[in-house]
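Students often ask why we bother encoding 3D structure as a string. The short answer is that it lets us treat folding as translation between two languages. Here is a chain of 218 residues written in the first language.
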Amino acid sequence: MIERIVPAEVETAEAYGDLAEAKLFPEEALLVKSAVEQRRGEFATARHCARQALTRLGAPAGAILTGERGSPVWPQGVVGSITHCLGYRAAVVARPAHVTSIGVDAEPALPLPSGVLEAVALPDEQIAVKELLESVPGIRWDRLLFSAKESVYKAWFPLTRRFLEFEEARLVFDPVGGTFTAHLLAGPARAGSRTLHTFDGRWLSEKGIVLTSVTIPA
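And here it is in the second language, the structure alphabet:
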């Protein structure tokens, strides 16, 4: 599914659950040595997906460690993003000549736990989500909002090296076109010579999963 919400220049790989053939490099295994088995499995499969995508890109597919704030450390000349949730793992990679930054996120298409929407959404976003849940009930708009804010952050951080709070981006969804716009309330992001006040994103809801992406083209 993930390839449907990223540009053609982006290489992707995904898995529906953990893969027995997914193995970790020793230095990667150290990152999850104290984690529970489920966490180790999803971590290994997500890294396996990342290496598949890197191979398709023609880039080195070695160990993928974690950097500042847990973001993946990609080989030189690669930008990318990794996501995993219950029943799904995926990775996307691209060359900086085509993509400056990219963020993807997957979530189960289930209602957010009580109180979470109020914690992550601005008042007008809460109103919009509740209206969408009534007018387009086939989509878990509350979970989609959460996922989209995660994708916004994953695209934002490599550009700014700054944290982005949930309330520092206001999202507006197009329920027909499968897109959304994120208005950056924390200030603009710089991408080369460009000053970005908004990020454009895409979303998809299928097979019990919601997927979102934000791509900043070169």
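Translate back mentally: The longest strand covers residues 99-108. Keep this in mind for the problem set.
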